[in-house]
Structures are given as C-alpha cells and as structure tokens.
Amino acid sequence: MEGENDLNTYFPDVEAMPINTLFDIEGIGPNEECPDRVRQLMQDIDFIVGRDVTSGNELFLYGRELLEKIKDGENSAVDVCVLVISLDQSDESNDLERICALVQIAKGKCDYKSRDQ
Q1: What are the structural domain ranges in the chain?
Q2: Measured between alpha carbons, how far is 105 from 43 in angstroms, rounded to an integer?
Q3: Facing residues of 87 across strands?
Q4: What confidence tens digit (pLDDT) does each residue in 8-31 have?
Q5: From the CB of residue 115, how many other CB atoms can be counted at a distance below 10 Å?
Q6: Digit-coded pLDDT (tens) for 46-102
C-alpha cells in the first residue's frame, strides 16, 4: 500500500480507535448506542487516517485540503484534531470500504485514493 495514501505511521503517537466502535453490531450502520457521539466526533475531526492492524501503515482518508494548506504555510498544525482508525486491509475484510463510506457520509467526501486511481 505505498503511494500518496500510505503515510507509514505519520501519526504514531495517536492511539487508534477500533473501526467497529463506529458501527452497529452488524458492522454496517452507525453505532446505535451512541450515534450522536459518533456523528459529533466525525464532524469535529480535521484529519482521518486508517491504520492497518497488521502492517501499521496509515492511509489518508480525509483532510487532504487542510494538509496542503499546512504544507504551504496557509494554516497552522496547532489544534488539529486527528482520528486514527484501526482497520484490517486483508483481502477478506471490507473495513476500508466501510470506513470510506462512513467518511463520505459524515464529511461529504473521502480523500482515499487506491493505487489504481
């Protein structure tokens, strides 16, 4: 998973939240026990990163525009909220698809790009 999405533990000090914390028991819809908390969490986040549970590699899921502004000196990285989500990127898992769909719904877009894009 190398490329522009692969951050190779760019946020190593940020503890990852298990992906299933965000979803219901079936793993499809939002967590019914605290949907407002999940919705608020997603709204407050500036960067969303997925961290593979096996390799530890990180994939950029949301915040590319802000990252570019920080790189260009237009914005400060101070007080930036980062959410790191642990997910399984094995061929048997649909974690990446699920989190991309949730990010798309919650933030209006998902910045993840596959190697093919």
Answers
A1: 17-107
A2: 11
A3: 52
A4: 456 777 888 899 888 877 777 777
A5: 10
A6: 999 999 999 988 899 999 888 888 888 887 777 788 899 999 999 999 999 999 998
Structure tokens at 6: 């692969």
Q: Which of left, alpha, beta for 72 (phi over 0: left; psi -120 to 50: alpha)?
A: alpha
- Write out the chain in H/E/C secondary structure: CCCCCECCCCCCCCCCEEHHHHECCCCCCECCCCHHHHHHHHHHCCEEEEEECCCCCEEEEECHHHHHHHHCCCCCCCCCCEEEEEECCCCCCCHHHHHHHHHHHHHCCCCCCCCCC
CA 55 to chain centre: 16
31 token code pair: 């967590």
Burial of 13 (0-12, 13-18, 19+ CB in 10 A): exposed
How far is it, in rounded angstroms, from Cα 29 to Cα 99?
A: 11
Provide CB contacts within 8 A for 34, sequence distance 6+. Answer: none
